Amino acid sequence: MSGKPLRLGIAGLGTVGVGVIKLLHENAQAIAARAGRSIEVVSVSARSRNRDRGVDLSGLTWHDDPRALAEDPNVDVVLELIGGAEGAARELVEAALLRGRDVVTANKALLALHGARLADMARENGASLLFEASVAGGIPAIKLVREGLAADRLLRVGGILNGTCNYILTAMRESGRGFDEILAEAQALGYAEADPSTDVDGWDAAHKLAILAGLAFGRPVAFNTLHVEGIRSIAACDQAFAQEFGYRIKLLGTARRGEDDAIEAWMRPCMVAQTAPIAAVDGVFNAVITEGAFSGPMLIEGRGAGAGPTASAVVADVIDLSRGTALPVWGTAPRPEISCQPRASLSGEYYLRLLVQDRSGVVAEIAAALRDAGVSLRAMSQHAAEVGTQSGVPLAVITHATQESAMLSVLTALEKLDSVLAEPVLMKIETV
Ligand SMILES: NC(=O)C1=CN([C@@H]2O[C@H](COP(=O)(O)OP(=O)(O)OC[C@H]3O[C@@H](n4cnc5c(N)ncnc54)[C@H](OP(=O)(O)O)[C@@H]3O)[C@@H](O)[C@H]2O)C=CC1
Ligand SMILES: N[C@@H](CCO)C(=O)O
């Protein structure tokens, strides 16, 4: 074991930052044995200096400005655990990389939006940038794709990448209650943020998918070309229809390699068969799926968030740096960003749910809209009006395989019908 410790500067002392300090303390011996030397925290930064964080910070250098960690001569590795694609987090990471200093981060927004530029900065300055904790918390998703499957030609990556959404969808299904009620419960339990939009509107999961896709296909994807939908529109009746048709609803992300290496990538609520392995991934758990031309399909399930799982991934990156095993950011020499194919080019079976007037001729109007777009029906069901709701009944159809462009035409036609009382809900039926 080397006599010289590896010295860390930690910016951000919230859930993850404090989790890292606790893990380094509680598992110090095993970590030092694996890293080949001891790992020491020497400097820290957060907003509020006086907050009791439940860990002993005495003897550590405190920086009010996290960017000072990039220049602190006693720091070997900077840990960015602040969060956010812009502001202090981005400034710190860029400042550290520009000085050739190695960085470990858990920040998926930063990587998804600025990964291409950060990879260039890391390469140009001989620094490493590691981010295992940014995707699916404690699941070693990045190592799986970048290292374990390095020899394969990946055809698909994705999975369930947001624990808050998976918790909400699971609780809705199990209890029959609506989205708003379960969201409030998730907030009370500390799963969802006070402003839950990053989670429930799909952005957090989409950031993670973009990172996985970048690693799988050896180049960053242009994040603004990903199709992103959240789960706010899912109602109790959708859960009931899903059950009836033999499906479960999951916020699912997929990035798929198409012909000529074009990339299809989306994050959206989907129907998956009740018998599919991913349908059984419930509650706050995440699952990462890969499919390689040589390795075939794979699914890993685990805790995608929380202090312990996330700190475990952060410290694994630190151990890699200590061992000298860090790799290029996207696993290969940097290549330019690639755009995802437009939504209209997708295809598959679809679930379409409407709230419609309960009168003669309505089903014929809807069937005509589907017929005009060349969409064939596989199944249809109508439920009684929910007690206490306004007039209108939920009606759902399952289509045979079709182009998404055809389903978008159907939506346009339905907008013009007086019999359709609310915005339709369209979900892809995904075979995983
Ligand atoms: N929580 C989780 O389960 C997971 C989180 N992540 C990622 O890890 C990162 C950290 O998340 P988490 O620990 O939950 O976040 P928290 O909100 O719990 O902590 C953020 C920390 O950053 C500090 N901070 C905020 N702004 C500044 C600033 N301008 N200057 C200095 N310090 C600042 C805060 O200081 P103060 O405490 O003084 O307010 C706080 O200590 C994020 O990128 C997140 O996406 C990834 C996987 C899972
Ligand atoms: N908010 C995320 C955890 C951080 O990645 C989730 O619910 O999965």
Automatic annotation (TrEMBL):
EC top class named in words: oxidoreductase
InterPro entries reported for this sequence: ACT-like_dom_sf (IPR045865), ACT_dom (IPR002912), Asp/hSer_DH_NAD-bd (IPR005106), HDH (IPR016204), HDH_cat (IPR001342), HDH_CS (IPR019811), NAD(P)-bd_dom_sf (IPR036291)
UniProt superkingdom: Bacteria
Pfam families according to UniProt: ACT, Homoserine_dh, NAD_binding_3
Active site (record annotation): K208
UniProt GO MF annotations: homoserine dehydrogenase activity; NADP binding
Binding annotation for NADPH: K108
SUPFAM superfamilies from the UniProt entry: ACT-like (SSF55021), Glyceraldehyde-3-phosphate dehydrogenase-like, C-terminal domain (SSF55347), NAD(P)-binding Rossmann-fold domains (SSF51735)
Residues reported in the UniProt entry to bind L-homoserine: E193
UniProt EC number: 1.1.1.3
Coiled coil: none
Signal peptide segment: none
Known pathway: Amino-acid biosynthesis; L-methionine biosynthesis via de novo pathway; L-homoserine from L-aspartate: step 3/3; Amino-acid biosynthesis; L-threonine biosynthesis; L-threonine from L-aspartate: step 3/5
Membership in a protein family: Belongs to the homoserine dehydrogenase family.
Protein name: Homoserine dehydrogenase
